[in-house]
Design a protein that fits this description.
Distance between the termini: 46 Å
Number of helices: 4
Helix content: 55-70%
Mean pLDDT: 77
Radius of gyration: 25 Å
Strand content: under 5%
Largest sheet: none
Structural class: mainly alpha
Length: about 170
């Protein structure tokens, strides 16, 4: 199958075509993070969602029944591993924020209450992160719509682009 290069310059793009900029989930330009106001990025959003779902389920389980000593140790280990996994996919800014809001456990087998508080805190932080991502995506969508409308208006005002039936 042969493809046609409308530009003739090997780029494969049409002359005057608008190329959309690909943005990451937190609103910064993907290549090299140029123009990022705060550097907040998640490198693997699907992994973030899996970890957040697991942490939420663990919190629900910890609320349902009291844990024995072995259960508390296991939950503590899972909690700490979850934080380490999150740190591996977060930008430096988000990693610092997560480190600032999470406190290490004081004992090898924390109490049920300590575990529930730590899990609830992590779930809350993750939910805040998701809300931030949603707000950023909504803002990007609104900006894209506004840019599209401005381009449409500019094109309508260009000479030679009069609508059919226009006499002027």
């Amino acid at each position: 199958m042969t493809s046609i290069d409308p530009s003739g310059d090997g780029s494969g793009e049409q002359p005057g075509a608008v190329t959309p900029e690909v943005l990451d989930a937190l609103g910064t330009a993907s290549p090299g993070n140029e123009g990022s106001p705060d550097g907040e990025q998640v490198s693997r959003p699907t992994k973030l969602i899996r970890i957040a779902s697991m942490v939420r389920a663990l919190l629900d389980e910890a609320r349902l029944a009291p844990l024995d000593d072995a259960g508390r140790r296991a939950l503590k280990e899972i909690h700490e591993r979850s934080i380490k996994e999150l740190e591996g996919i977060l930008s430096d800014d988000l990693r610092r924020e997560l480190t600032d809001v999470t406190l290490p456990f004081a004992s090898d087998a924390p109490s049920d209450a300590e575990l529930r508080i730590a899990q609830a805190q992590l779930v809350g932080w993750l939910e805040g992160l998701f809300h931030g991502i949603q707000a950023t995506l909504f803002t990007q969508q609104m900006q894209a719509q506004q840019q599209f409308e401005e381009m449409r208006q500019r094109r309508a005002l260009e000479p030679g682009n009069r609508p059919p039936g226009a006499y002027l």
